[in-house]
Amino acid sequence: MALRQCLEPLGGLQSFVRPGQRVLLQVNLASPSPPEDAVCTHPAIVRAVCRLVREVGGTPAVGGSAAGVTAHRTQQALKASGILDAATAEGAEVLNYDEIGGRDIDSGGALLGKLHIARPVLETDVLITLPKMKTHGLTLLTGAVKNHMGVLPGARKSELHRLFPDPKDFGEALLDMYTAAPPHLATMDTVQGMDGDGPAGGRVRDVGLLAASAYGVALDAVMCAVAGLDAEWVPTLAAARKRGIGVASLEGIEVLGIPLEEAGGRVSPFVYPTTYRLATNSWPPIWGRRLLLRQFNRPAKPIILTRECTGWRTCFESCPVKAITMVGKKALIEQKECIACLCCHEVCRWD
Ligand code: SF4
Ligand code: SF4
Known about the structure:
The protein has helices spanning about 1-5, 45-55, 70-80, 85-90, 95-100, 120-125, 155-165, 165-180, 215-225, 235-245, 260-265, 285-295, 315-320, 345; strands spanning about 20-25, 60-65, 95, 100-105, 115-120, 125-130, 130-135, 140, 185-195, 205-215, 325, 330-335. With about 350 residues, it is an alpha/beta fold. It folds into 2 domains: about 1-265, Rossmann fold (3-Layer(aba) Sandwich); about 300-350, Alpha-Beta Plaits. The strands form 3 sheets. Strands 1, 2, 3, 6, 7, 8, 9 and 10 form an 8-stranded mixed beta sheet that branches. A two-stranded antiparallel ribbon has the order 4-5. The mean pLDDT is about 90.
């Protein structure tokens, strides 16, 4: 019912899906975590979107690719998150992009040339992205635009990190990906979100909202306002503003449904990730901090908590520049090699 209400001001799902169309739901599969950890899209949202797709005559399928490089990890994430069961119960095909693979397309973007995108994304009639509202150590917010990282199968995600270690460039690259194969609709799971050191190791936050838009950039800008995060710090939104793609400023966005002030008032401001501490300083003034961010923002490099490390090598396999070695059953980061992409932080849950 909540999803129906959320989509009503946009004309309902029938404005996006015609009878007989194949509809792919692109879920957030950050890591193999249960629904209560608020890491992946909640299976209840996946189930609800599948049902609405059927109601309007479409055929739903659910797909994604987890952080990390193996199809096995994506399968684990599909299972642990409850998404596999929810989609199967609704009769939706579940697509592991890492098993299916992708196809090269010209991105037509500012930074990227060719892009290798999961075949289901290119072959569906309608693409609906289902991001989860979370903070992110590298990109501050993981919303509709960042969720598009999941259209890259397997090791292609790590490759993007290796090519663009600077958050600004990474934001531009993500925007290229988003515009190369844009979703028709973004439906954000903001029932529960995550703040602090997201996208997998932060704190679960009860937000109690659902948000949707045909325009992912605008949706992310609005979600920043709801969470009390400064959109100026989000590299994808900064890139969108610079290039004039989408609407990244609240002034140009009409918010339907619950007024923005009321939605924002429901949740106390999200805590920034450790890597964005500068954003929460009271000095220098905001314009000075923004200048510093543009010039010097480099995420902190992670360290291994050796005592906690269980030695299952997920970080070792995921590091795009091979900065991690395994010494016996413990991971070790070669700090000089580390490009601070935080891929290891994202995949490590003490295994
Ligand atoms: S050690 Fe971690 S943060 Fe550093 S490059 Fe490897 S994956 Fe990225
Ligand atoms: S992912 Fe975490 S627990 Fe696993 S080897 Fe790396 S640091 Fe250790």
